[in-house]
Amino acid sequence: MFRKLLNSELGRPSLEEYKTLDKSPVTVVLDNVRSRHNIGSAFRTCDAFRAGGIILCGISSTPPAPEIHKSALGAEFSVDWTYRESTVSAVMELKAAGYTVIGVEQTENSISTDDFLYGRRALDPGRKYAVIFGNEVHGISQEAVDLCDITLEIPQWGTKHSLNVSVAIGIVLYVLGRGLHG
Question: Are strands 99-104 and 26-31 parallel, antiparallel or unpaired?
Fold first, then answer.
């Protein structure tokens, strides 16, 4: 038999405690993500994996917005975020600041998340990583892909070769977390 744990038993930090915790060296970049619900889910997932922050770009909405709050469940208050009009400009700033830029996109030379996690690429906890996730229809813009150091692809076996952006964020942050923390 299994008893579900109560929220009080999960050892979750308060918002004030969370703000003081060490964060992952991973920043999420949303390239023209249209759905406010997906943006809220991104905040919630970034909170769960203690991402270093989110950069919302282009047409991506910013808090406060009821739809973001509904999906984020308040994570828009715990996760640091900024807005940039241009994804390309944001990525160029990140590269200048020493980030390794990873695009989650199907490209000619993309690396599967399995290969990335299980030995073909070692993640350095001393480095900073920016991970770009694209628009729900068009993915990451080609101009942003051109600036990536690495592109990752999530293996899929069905007839649809795409995932909802919020699902992709969860998978990739998990993979990167495993790569950074074992």
Answer: unpaired
What is d(CA 142, CA 108) in angstroms, rounded to the nearest whole number?
Answer: 12
Residues 6+ apart with CB under 8 A from 62: 56, 68, 81, 83
pTM assigned to the model: 0.95
Q: Is the pLDDT of residue 181 over 90?
A: no
* Mean predicted confidence (pLDDT) in 79-95: 98
Phi, psi angle pair for 72, to nearest 5°: -75, -25
CATH code of the domain occupying 20-153+162-181: 3.40.1280.10
> Strands 53-57 and 81-84: what pairing?
parallel
Distances in Å between the Cα of 182 and the Cα atoms of 28, 115, 128, 155, 157 are: 20, 15, 17, 21, 26
CA–CA separation, 60 vs 137, rounded Å?
13
User: How does pLDDT run across 116-156, given as a tens digit for each residue?
Assistant: 887 656 678 899 999 999 999 999 999 999 999 999 999 99
